[in-house]
Structures are given as structure tokens and as C-alpha cells.
Design goal:
By secondary structure, this protein is mainly alpha-helical.
Length: 155
């Protein structure tokens, strides 16, 4: 399985919001700078994440993007499915009866149950890792939090 750059950037951007935002909205430019992602590409990514109801946005001087739910409830699997549409192979998934209905060679397709098991295991692993856990991994790697994220100074 190969994930697109869009999905990888989406996960990095969501990690960034979780790790740096202090619960406040974060501007695309700040995320783009920290994660080395083109801001225009991030805008497209955030539109998909908004449609999936993972992030929300706020306009104005204190605006930006924010998580719609607690990072403890947003999984990598949810993000991957929002960006990629899932990790399944159309012909070989479903019950054995469903596979036989969909595919004329299913009686010869010894691998269908293997692909189904792989998909179930992969989804289970991705659904077991939350954004909160990614932030903990960042702490374990001793990444430095941006202490000014979400703060505005006026002189």
C-alpha cells in the first residue's frame, strides 16, 4: 500500500495542530513553515479534512484551523480514509458469498481471504493510533513545541 503525499501531509498538519496549537486556531502559514509543506497544497488538504469533519476553520486575525474533536478521538485511520477513501481492494473484500457474487474468478482466487485479513489488520492498526498518541511520540522524540503558536503580539 502506498499513501499519497496528500495523506502524509494531512497527518503531518494534524500532528502540528495537536502538538503546537495550545487548543487555538493555527494559521496555514505557521503549519506550512514548521512542516515544510506548500501553503496552497495545505489549503486543499484542509478542505478535505473539513469535509470529513476533522477540522474546522475560523476567519480573522486570530483565525486558522483547529480540530473539531479531541485529539484522543481522531485516529490515523480516519484521516487516511478521509484522504484516500479507504484501504481496500474492490474485488476481494466482503464475505465469501459477496466475493463470489462480485467476481467471476473468486472460486479460483485463493488470495481473497488473505487480502481481506490484511485490510482488517491494517485498518485496526491505523484506528488504534490517535493524534494524541502522535503528540506523545513527538514529546518522546524531544521535539520542541512552538511556544508562540496561536499567540498574537500587538505593539
Amino acid at each position: 500500500m502506498k499513501l499519497s503525499s496528500k495523506t502524509m501531509y494531512a497527518l503531518r498538519a494534524l500532528f502540528d495542530i495537536t502538538f503546537h496549537s495550545h487548543g487555538k486556531a493555527t494559521k496555514i502559514d505557521a503549519i506550512a513553515a514548521r512542516e515544510n509543506v506548500p501553503p496552497r497544497f495545505l489549503e486543499q488538504i484542509f478542505q478535505d479534512l473539513k469535509a470529513a469533519q476533522i477540522v474546522g476553520s475560523k476567519r480573522g486575525p486570530n483565525g486558522g484551523y483547529f480540530l473539531l474533536r479531541s485529539p484522543e478521538t481522531i485516529t490515523i485511520g480516519e484521516v487516511v480514509r478521509a484522504m484516500e477513501g479507504g484501504v481496500e481492494h474492490n474485488c476481494c473484500f466482503g464475505s465469501d458469498a459477496e466475493v463470489r457474487e462480485k467476481c467471476k474468478v473468486s472460486s479460483k482466487c485463493v488470495t481473497s481471504s488473505v487480502w481481506r485479513d490484511i485490510s482488517l489488520q491494517l485498518n485496526a492498526i491505523m484506528d488504534a493510533v490517535t493524534l494524541s498518541e502522535l503528540a506523545l511520540r513527538g514529546e518522546a522524540l524531544r521535539l520542541t513545541r512552538d511556544s508562540d503558536a496561536g499567540l498574537t503580539y500587538t505593539i
